[in-house]
Amino acid sequence: MSTRPLLLGTSALAFTAAVLVSCGGTAVFDAPDPEACASGHGCPMAVCACSDGSIVLDTTCESGRCVPSEQVCPERCEPYGGASRSFATTDDEVPVPACDTFCARLGANGCELGCDTLFSACVSPGECSPEATSFWKCVVTQGVITCEDNAVRVEGCDGTMMGVCEKQP
Questions:
Q1: pTM, rounded to two decimals
Q2: Can you list the pairs that 139-145 forms with residues at least 24 positions away whose Cβ atoms lie under 8 Å?
Q3: What is the pLDDT of residues 89-116, one digit of tens each?
Q4: How far is 128 from 97, CA to CA, in rounded Å?
């Protein structure tokens, strides 16, 4: 019986342990995700109405660059009957009524990154259309919020009345 395979296995194990110790405990697993976008990414937020009546909110930052909401929403709504409507904010500073409450709800509902999942800064809104007021009131206070794959899904709010408020001057 040869001991050569046992020696090779032991050598490989010793090498792996040395690499892990020299890298502070991990080798590859602490590397940043190349598909992810950091906080302060500069991309608008996408608002996607799915055919099943739910709404998906997500950043338009994909692989480190901004893409149109028309490119983001079909994929996000695919499990929910496809996208029926979409739009994006003008930039990554999003005016949301009761923003503190909204961000707290994201955290309470398991959204790991909270509001950073969607935008870089939440700002107080200036003027809101009736549609935007109704939409955000529902999202902030009544909608059932879940986080899936770093996107926010909202159920129970009317996706036909979506809107974004204007920033304060």
A1: 0.74
A2: 139/55, 139/57, 139/102, 140/96, 140/97, 140/98, 140/101, 140/102, 140/105, 141/98, 141/101, 143/55, 145/105, 145/106, 145/109, 145/111
A3: 988 899 988 999 999 999 888 887 888 8
A4: 9
